Amino acid sequence: MILHLRRFVLPVLAVFCLQISTAGAQSGIPSMGDTARGELTPVAEYKLGREIMQQIKGDPAYVNDLVLSEYLSNLGNRLVSANAETRGELSNDFTFFAIRDGTLNAFALPGGFIGVHTGLLLATQSESELASVLSHEIGHVSQRHIARMMGQAKQDMLIPIASVVLAILAAQASADAAGAVLMGGQGYALQKQINFTRDAEKEADRVGFQILKGAGFDTTGMTTFFQRMQTATRTYSDAPSPYLRTHPLTADRIADIEARVRHEPYRQHADDIDFYLVRGNARIDQDDSEPALHNAATVFEEQVKSGSRIQMTAGNYGLALIALHRKNPADAKAYLQLAKKSAGNAAAKSLALNSLSIEILLESGQAAEAAREARAAMNLFPSSRAIAHLYASSLYASKRYDEAAKYLRKQAQSYRDDPDLQRQLAKVYDALGKKALMHMALAESYGLVGAYQAALEQLKMARQSPDVNFYDQSMIDAREREWKKIIRESLKEKS
């Protein structure tokens, strides 16, 4: 028994010894390391989150729906901007995105990247409910729970290691005693993780509640959504939803939220019309197979029959999305007109309705009209990424290639992390016969989603293009060095 433990612990003990600080060595007591803030700086946290996000963007589950993404971004940043202290130690912007998944879940990545499953978006029944989930995730980020958890994990890793060391000594007297020491150390580490998670959830609730309140949303949205999830879990399954597994709801946590709500005056919040519309996008983004579209159409038709103006608008908008997806722009236009009619004055301020109108014109072959409408929409939504992409698409469809290239180059300078802009730019360069620039733009689009080998292959083709010039060659060389370095560092980390 003693020999077996010794063979197991020798390599581990070496790691344990490396963790002992100078002060710890002097006192004879091993140090468990510095605080989590010393373990992972805000800059390192953002870099880690950005690397993870790069991989997510290349995954089929990532929802590349500009209208839905923009709605989440606008809602999320409204919450972040409600209180100057929300950002905490992070100076970078928050990023909000959707994941194609029918389960009820949301999550925060290091550095302020917050994802929402399409299933959760469909489960929320008011904008305040959705805002409460985002506020909770923002709370995790602002309190740097992920950085602290990583630091905690590094410290907790030493607990079972120390247990093994003690078990060797205990085994000299009793094998049973050695086993008890090992189990006790593992159990203590697990309990510490559970306690940390519970504390982090309560802290995220507290911070999220203040964010929700400061942004002018109905704070009861936090309790109604959590209560509905718990009820659904008890009614339909013994297994909790993914959200409840990753965000465990305890009785005292719910009571704490309810107490906070009771002490606040009721505040009615007028939901943005796009909250109801983009749920149609989420339903189709989640599953666009023909059987799923048939089921979605049934849901949208029921909304139209409800008699509620907002539900009628959402239902007809959803039916227009399905018609467009099926390449039937005439029906899509008819449903869109019905949606606009029931929306009334709110239609003009809806990004979803304006964007869909331009898409229908493009699908109908009315490129010039689409460009005019997109240009007008840019005045209404000057910072809209969805409208910017549609304007570029309409310029391309109108064969205004030089104008499209100029516009896209300017956009790419302002939004350097947008791979779609680079893909659009590549199409325009191809139409202009600029092969080197086309391959360079494609290389940038691959690089932005972490597909560095594919990016390097595009650079190789750009270098071999007959129209490549000296300036292009220098840009290619610089990018090639940069991406090869990233690949080498990645391989080194894996090894």
UniProtKB/TrEMBL annotation:
It comes from the Bacteria. CDD domains: M48C_bepA_like. The keyword Electron transport does not apply. Residues 72-260 form the Peptidase M48 domain. Keywords: Hydrolase, Metal-binding, Metalloprotease, Protease, Signal, Zinc. InterPro entries: Mito/Outer_Membr_Metalloprot, Peptidase_M48, TPR-like_helical_dom_sf. Residues 1-25 form the signal peptide. GO terms for cellular component: membrane. Its cofactor is Zn(2+). One of its GO terms (biological process) is proteolysis involved in protein catabolic process. GO terms for molecular function: metal ion binding; metalloendopeptidase activity. This is Tetratricopeptide repeat protein. It comes from Oxalobacter formigenes OXCC13.
